[in-house]
Every structure is written in C-alpha cells, then in structure tokens.
Amino acid sequence: MSAVVTRFAPSPNGWLHAGHALSALTAFDIAQRNGGRFVLRIEDIDVARRSPEYVAAIYDDLAWLGLTWQEPVLVQSEHFTEYLAAADKLIAMGLLYPCFASRAEIEAAADPSRVDPDGAPLYPGLWKKVAAEEIKNRLETGDTPALRLDMDAAMAALRAKIGEMPLTFTEIDENGVARTLRAEPERWGDAVIVRKDVPASYHLAVVVDDARQGVTHVTRGQDIMPATGLHRLLQVLLELPEPVYSHHRLIRWSDGRKLSKSSGDMGLRSLRQEGASAEDIKRAIGFS
To answer: If pLDDT is split at 50, 70 and 90, which confidence band does 70 have?
Structure first.
C-alpha cells in the first residue's frame, strides 16, 4: 500500500466540539503511527452557512490540540469546477437527471415507510421519467434543478464494471482489525449529487476530494458509515481510488444524544476559555 494519508474535514458552520476532537486526533494518530501524512480540508460547499470566524477557529482549535497538517489546506468552495467536471462524467454516462421537486412535494408524494439512512423520505421518482420538453420548459423559466443519481442505471453501470461480485469496502476497527463489509448504495435511492444551490453535494465532493488529496484512510464517526455505500459506488463509477475506512465511536451525552455543533455541545472554544487543557480533552473523550 502507498504511504498512509488521513484527513480531517470539518464544515465551518459552527464551533468544533469534543466529537470533532476525537475525529481529528484519531486521523492524526493513524498518520503518525504509520509514518504518513495528515491533511486538512474545509468542507464549505454550503457557502451561505460558512463563517470566516469558524474557519479561523478550526485552525486555532486543532493547533491547540497539538495537531499539525500538510499545507495547503483544501477549501472546497475554491473547487466547484472540479465537482462539476465529475458530475459531467456521470451525465455523459446517463446516470444523472434533473429534479425540480421541492422538499414539500417530495414529502407529500413519498411513502412514509421508506426512508434513506439519514431518515429522510426516500425520493419517489417525481422527475425520473419526465419528458425532455417539460424539463426544457422549466429551465427556460429560470428554475434551477438538483441533479439526482438514477440508482437503477447506476447499479447497472456498476455491474458492467465489476460483474456480479458484491460492492464492498474495508473497515478497520479501533483495534486495527480489518473487515470486508458489503456496501449498500441502493439504500439511498436516487440521491442528490448536485444540489440546486451549489454545484455539488456532500457525497460528490467528498469522493472527489479524497482522491485529489490522495487519502488512503478515511476516518470519521459511525454516523457517517451508511454513506460509505454511496461513496464506494461513486468511486467505482468515476474510477477513483478506493480508500480504507475507520468509523469511530461517537461522543454522546448520558441520554444517548450525540454532540451537536448547532447546540454548542462541549465546544472546544468554550472549554478552552473555561481553563481546560488539550490533555483534559483527550482524557474526557477517552483518547490515548
């Protein structure tokens, strides 16, 4: 295997909390133990929620934890053309289609018993087979569509590439034991690949950026694990390298709730202001 490259990829729409510290420290530790590189990415495709203050705080908090990273830092909002180029490849393969449906329209038409791994209604295919003329008319009115992945067509394209063997990924647990797990991209249905408001989705941007940064080990929380199936599908379709994955435990409150940036839960900034040290944080999250 090539040299190990890990990454930490926060979104600058809130203060980092103790859960982020566990993600960053875990990725940094894997790189250090394997003589590899630790890279940083600012995942700010949602530019409306991006704050320069939060970006600066990310750098400050990580440095306070004792982490260093390879420069330059990849900032997603500077790379929209690359995401559109990846989407164009999927369009050329006949795998994306425009969808003008609003969230309310989707919820009204969806089967409430069918949800994606995030708990959202599974897309009911409102625009999947719409005539080209109707799409043209909507575009001429100035409406901007999202671009959705035709999952049926994508799975057929996958089979053309890998045959009938299952799509898998390698998961390394906290004890360093590797397992081969089955990827299940079909659980996401016709997922959004290019949003209406920005020229990418998290799913598209993350696989393009992991390949661009040469990431060999993707380290992130267990809550993101279901997305791995969709990411593996996109990697195969776009002929991108396959990393290995480590989905670490989540830091939770005693009632089982995971930490939330929007609630300011255990924010590193506020803990620092209250006198906590980096070693205090490491002990609190059980990181050694």
So the answer is: very high
Calculate the alpha carbon distances from 231 to 1, 41, 185, 191, 236 in Å. Answer: 21, 17, 8, 11, 9
- Within 13 Å of residue 95, how many CA atoms lie on the same side as its CB? 25
Pick 79-204's CATH classification: 3.20.20.70, 3.90.800.10, 3.40.1190.20, 1.10.10.60.
3.90.800.10
DSSP string covering 76-89, please?
Answer: GGG-HHHHHHHHHH
**Of residues 213, 204, 214, the one with CA closest to residue 154:** 204
Does residue 67 contact residue 38 with C-beta atoms inside 8 Å? yes
For tokens 């982020």, what's the residue? Answer: 20
Strands 178-182 and 168-172 turn out to be antiparallel
Picking from 266, 216, 274, the residue whose alpha carbon sits closest to that of residue 240 is 216
Q: pLDDT for 193-223, tens place per residue?
A: 999 999 999 999 999 999 999 999 999 999 9
Question: What's the pLDDT tens digit per position in 161-180?
Answer: 999 999 999 999 988 899 99
